[in-house]
Amino acid sequence: MIIILFCRRIFVSCVIICGQTCKHVFLWLVEPEKHPDFWKEWAQRTLKNALTLQDLNKNVAKNIILFLGDGMGVPTVTAARILKGQMSGQSGEETQLEMDKFPYVALSKTYNTNAQVPDSAGTATAYLCGVKANEGTVGVSAAAVRSQCNTTQGNEVTSILKWAKDAGKSVGIVTTTRVNHATPSAAYAHCVDRDWYSDGDMPTEALQSGCKDIARQLFENIPDIDVIMGGGRRNMYPRNTPDVEYPGDKKHNGTRKDGRNLVGDSGEKSFHKGYYAWNRKDLLSLNPNNVDYLLGLFEPADLPYELERNKETDPSLTEMVDVAIKILRKNERGFYLLVEGGRIDHGHHEGKAKQALHEAVEMDRAITRADLLTSIYDTLTVVTADHSHVFSFGGYTPRGNSIFGLAPTVSDIDQKPFTSILYGNGPGFKLVNSTRENVSTVDYEQNNYQAQSAVPLRMETHGGEDVAIFSKGPMAHLLHGVQEQHYIPHVMAYAACIGQNKDHCRTNSGSPSLSHISPTLALLLAVKWLLC
């Protein structure tokens, strides 16, 4: 109030002394958006920055990072941007997410080979293995049929994580879901059913036919994945084994029928400097310089939503990413890191938009942290989603309206208010006395409020529209236009000179390309060539 009164006094004095010119200057300082020059100068700054992008970054990517926002469609990105701003006391719309700062943006077509609206397993196979696949399957081609074990063999496809490991890079997986959930599992598993988390989830016929559960494949398919962090403890232990954190809760007990302790088995490896952590304190007490391998399983199943996270026992996504990069970057050959903000998807499925959007904001914090720990000159960073959701926000809300708030007018049909955020289908469909629920009678801004939906479903569904791809770093310009989702790992591999994309990394004579070595070495090679 004091500041406002002070400004008013300055404004009055200014007008008396200087007239209309000073009035315009004052408005420029206090309400810049009302002055045309504000927008013109903003556009000119953006234009100058865009012109710098004409000098393409064609370096070899020593490091490659993929941030995957599960279910993070474009409406979710926009709403998360507004939420981030409003959490900082701003109106929100003008805020920038970290991914908004990336210089290149493209669109990804997300369909599965047998589905117009995809699931997270088939899409993960696309953006990790470079091959489109059927819904519900991970790490296998479209020739494999969901739940049919005998269609696995011969149809396996490998991922960019394996390509990077084979090239001598360190590799890591960080997720807020189970480490054997759909997204991370496509990085290492070959399974015709995404729900085969442990052998306790598999039909007897599949086990007898030799198919392996996903948890087992995590430790057997690609030996020595350097960093693995997320949830999923119960799938690693024998059936009825009490959980270390919730020993009295039987729903968290081990699920394995084969009697194996996969965590113990991995701990018996002879690798140097290997650690296991099951809580935040253990994780943050580690010195990354003394850790070569890390297995962190922080919950029996998925990690809790960020809004419900126990900050004493569960690390945030940002904290996990921080530790992961500090371990992986010690490798002079670089690293590949897959990071999944997996519970964005879960929040939307439950119709809990507030949970979903806070998960997206947390993932953006993790992207910011990764940016501080890496360099755009040798690190290709890609941010994308596997699919969208039937989530939207609208209703002609005014600038600065709470993203979780009401539209400014009531419905002209039933004369009731409605929230800006709505779902096309899902659990938020509610009738009271045979009419739509009056949302003004409930707390629509509470964490677990289920936004209203048009069609009643126990779980809200995915959306089928294209999703965004944000990229920066070496060869990021190759992610442009509208692309098939399976194109993504091929670009990342090309940038890093791994997998099948190596020919461009050498000149026709077989010597290393000068663009991929230090300027000093390039000069020495040039002098040697001239002298010889």
From TrEMBL:
Subunit structure, as described in the record: Homodimer.
Enzyme class, spelled out: hydrolase
Compartments in which it is found: Cell membrane
GO function terms (MF aspect): alkaline phosphatase activity; metal ion binding
Record protein name field: Alkaline phosphatase
Taxonomic source organism: Sinocyclocheilus anshuiensis
Catalytic residues as annotated in Swiss-Prot or TrEMBL: S120 (phosphoserine intermediate)
Disordered: annotated segments: 238-264
Topology within the bilayer: Lipid-anchor; GPI-anchor
Biased composition (Basic and acidic residues): 247-264
